[in-house]
Design a protein that fits this description.
The chain has 13 helices and no strands. By secondary structure, the protein is mainly alpha-helical. The chain has two domains: 24-89 and 244-292, no CATH class; 93-243, Orthogonal Bundle (MetI-like fold). The chain is elongated. The termini are far apart.
Amino acid sequence: MSVVQTTSPPQDDTRRRGPLAEVFFSLMRSRTFLVGIAIVLFWVVCALFGEHFVPYDPLADDIINALAPPSRDHWFGTDQIGRDVFSRVIVGSRDILTVAPLATLLATVAGTALGLLTGYFRGIVDDVVSRILEAFMAIPVVIVALLAIVALGTSKTTVIIVIGLSFAPIIARTVRSAVLAERELDYVAAAQLRHESALYTMFVEILPNIIPPILVETTVRLGYAIFAVATLSFMGFGIQPPSPDWGLSISSNYGMIGGGFWWTVLFDALAIASLVIGVNLAADGVHGAFND
């Protein structure tokens, strides 16, 4: 008697992948994400190692060569006191890529905690906290910055706190919506039947299941934070001299545009725009990966 051996059909590789692996492969297939992350990584490298390969000291002035146009010696020209614009653009990425991510991290942590609190407890807790957050969101960032500067003084720490607390209510609203949906599922009811504490249920049971919308919201807020840091620096409320920060450099030199010295501002503005675009492209890729 012959024995017929049967072979099981090959399993689809996607079935053997975990959810995180699926997200990773989706990101690697997303041109939007890859282009965005390449732009961001370029500026991260500049922030970390820029001072080692720029041709000039970004803080050194040279009055003799002030307002020199772009040339072989000065690729992006020089500013009104002779500092090399190219060197300042490259090294100027450091402060903005330090302050903006830290502010976004603060906003994410605070916003996630508040969103879990309001979404889980609901009732009077939700009503009171949500009204406070809505009132806080109605105050412009500039007004918050002025109040914070009066209380804390001008510093990078102040900028981080201002932007972080300004964006936290937005993230809290997103997290609250996700928690409201998760709260009605069986695993939350099972945790409550086991008499688990509210903190355990929120941070151990619910939080891991709402990571995707939190990550998407965080990447989106990072783009806004970069623009906010540059704006506050431009207005004199953010990073202070002698930093080559992009917003501060634009603030110091924008008056030169009327005299035809466009290069003193253009390249810093393009740097801000490219970084924000890179972050937004990466955020779109992350959003698409979690929604595939």
